[in-house]
Design brief:
By secondary structure, the protein is of the alpha/beta class. The protein contains 16 helices and 17 strands. Strand 12, helix 14 and strand 13 form a beta-alpha-beta unit. Helix 13 packs across helix 14.
Length: about 425
């Protein structure tokens, strides 16, 4: 083959012959992100990157290594079907989802296309971001903080409204002894209730915020506290007049019947889903039209392709899809590709607004900051879109207990088990 011929041919890899040869991890700690990144290496010199869900364990990814070695990463669905049994809801899905992101990164690089193309193409060129903002007990000050976000270009906002704002307010919350200090009891079992005084204070808080920011942009609310359904309904009815974008995770996602009652009782969209794994986990919420907005986290819901399927199922039931995301640019970019490929997508979360320059600098080959004018441009480069990770930035955030970046993991090479789920 002549030089003139190969100049226009991608000879970087032979996708049909590509094999996974290694899985390594690195742990990053400190603002503006905590992260467990994974890297899948291949026999043709290309690597793919993924990220374990924030708060998850590296073990969730490492236990999958022996099941990946020798596999062709371009067979994304085949491998995903093999490993998805090792995931579960919330952080326990982190390993499976990180691997799926890395597979999509590798497959895109092997074929020279962006990951969204592997998910069916795109519906949009830019991804709308919404930003969380650190809370303050003073509603006017909170409104000013959100107004600053608007001045930074954000056109979709979120804040916390719940019992955390009522700690110093006498007679605002009723709770059994010690229950307010517990975070490990599901909402229906805490016995915590809001009083009329407490509900009134929260309404005053939101009114002060609205006084500052007006009604120009959507404003969602989250972190209500571990309240029972009845207090959620009472609070929801009281807050309806502020035309909020959604009430998020008022109760655990598992209680579909309670979400139906909540949705029917209030006039504000109801949202949940950041801890739900696979499309099967969402099906009852869809069938019963228990929510108006689903909110999967791609690092818990199953990765890019599975979350695209979740979005499509939601659309069939008249439900919009926003995306939860509180991790590094690696998971953010995986979310961007999924959002680009999902028609009913609404907005993508970002938690790094106060340190966007450093956060964005973790990845190379893309604009810094990654979020501009409240949006992330969908990359047109192969895979997840970045050309590599910035080693200098990684070393700034390296975990002191595991400072080596992508250290060898041979101890996970030979673990064997009979994984088949049928006889």
């Amino acid at each position: 083959m002549t030089r003139e011929t190969t100049d226009h041919v991608n000879t970087y890899s032979r996708p049909s012959q590509l094999k996974i040869t290694d899985l390594r991890i690195t742990k990053l700690r400190g603002a503006p992100f905590h992260s467990i990144l994974i890297r899948l290496d291949t026999d043709q010199g290309i690597s793919g990157y993924g990220e374990v869900r924030d708060g998850g364990s590296a073990t969730y990814a490492l236990l999958l290594k022996n099941r990946l070695l020798g596999e062709n990463p371009c067979n994304v669905d085949k491998i995903f079907r093999r490993i998805k049994q090792f995931g579960h809801h919330a952080r326990q899905a982190g390993g499976v989802c990180a691997v799926e992101m890395a597979l999509m990164d590798l497959a895109g690089k092997a074929y020279g296309v962006p990951a969204y193309q592997l998910a069916g193409g795109k519906f949009r060129d830019r991804i709308l971001c919404y930003c969380d903002t650190t809370s303050t007990p003073d509603g006017t000050e909170m409104g000013r903080r959100l107004k600053q976000r608007m001045e930074q270009g954000f056109r979709f906002l979120k804040m916390d409204v719940g019992i955390g704002l009522l700690r110093e307010v006498l007679d605002a919350v009723i709770a059994p002894p010690g229950m307010l200090a517990r975070g490990d009891i599901m909402h229906p079992f805490t016995g915590i209730q809001l009083t009329e005084k407490g509900i009134g204070r929260l309404c005053e808080y939101v009114a002060a915020v609205r006084q500052e920011i007006g009604y120009e942009v959507p404003l969602a609310v989250d972190h209500f506290g571990h309240l029972g359904l009845e207090s959620c309904i009472r609070l929801g009815k009281a807050l309806d007049r502020f035309s909020l974008a959604w009430y998020e995770d008022m109760i655990p996602w598992q209680f579909t019947d309670q979400y139906v009652r909540l949705s029917q009782a209030v006039d504000t969209p109801i949202c949940t889903g950041e801890d739900t794994y696979l499309k099967e986990g969402f099906m009852e919420l869809f069938r019963q039209r228990a929510v108006a907005v689903i909110h999967p986290d791609l690092a818990s819901s199953g990765g890019i392709l599975e979350t695209k399927k979740i979005g499509d199922l939601a659309q069939e039931h008249g439900i919009a899809m926003a995306l939860h995301m509180a991790m590094s640019p690696v998971a953010a970019l995986a979310s961007v590709h999924c959002a680009a490929a999902t028609e009913n997508f609404l907005a993508l979360e970002n938690h790094a607004v106060d340190d966007l320059e450093r956060w964005s600098s973790l990845v190379e080959g893309l604009p810094v900051p990654l979020v501009q004018d409240g949006h992330i441009q969908v990359p047109e480069t192969p895979g997840l879109g970045f050309t590599g990770l910035n080693e200098e930035v990684m070393r700034q955030f390296a975990d002191p207990e595991a400072p080596e970046l992508f250290a060898p993991t041979e101890e996970w090479d030979k673990e064997r088990a009979h994984d088949r789920l049928w006889s």
